[in-house]
Each structure stands twice: as C-alpha cells, then as structure tokens.
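An instance follows:
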Amino acid sequence: MKNLTHYRWQQIDTLFGQALEQPPEYRTSFVLEACGADTELCNHVKQLLQLHEEAGGIIGESAGTFAAPLLMELKEQIEDEPPSSGRIGSE
C-alpha cells in the first residue's frame, strides 16, 4: 500500500471503517459491492480486513477509543494524589 495519495487513503480508511460496522460474515460482500469496478480499492480494504482479523480485532479501533479507559484510570489516579507542596518548576 505504498505510494497512495492522501485522498486514496481516506477512501480506504472510510470504507474499512464502514466494513467493520458490518457483521463479519457480510464484510467481504459489503466491500465488493461498495467498491464496484475499483478492484484496487477493494483489494486494499480486503487486505486491511484480513490483517484486522489476524490481529484479533485491534486494527481499526481509533486511538481515542483504545486509550479512553487508560486515560480515565490515569485521571482517577491523579485526582486521588494530594497536591504537591512544591512550587511549579522547583525540584
């Protein structure tokens, strides 16, 4: 998937996201129908779907969705800590 334009990556990303919203058994047929005669687009999206399945479903999950529980836990830890007695910038 080298040398793809920004626009092409957007097409691939959008279609990949839409395919992930489909039940797994309908994803390939959804992609085939959505791509029409654009076999290159179809092949790129199908390749991402295959990698997604091999990776156990973590590809395609946005960074925000993936990190949200971790960030909430970190926020709770920070809120539970007493305020520092030092000045900002002091060691």
In short: The chain has one domain: 6-80.
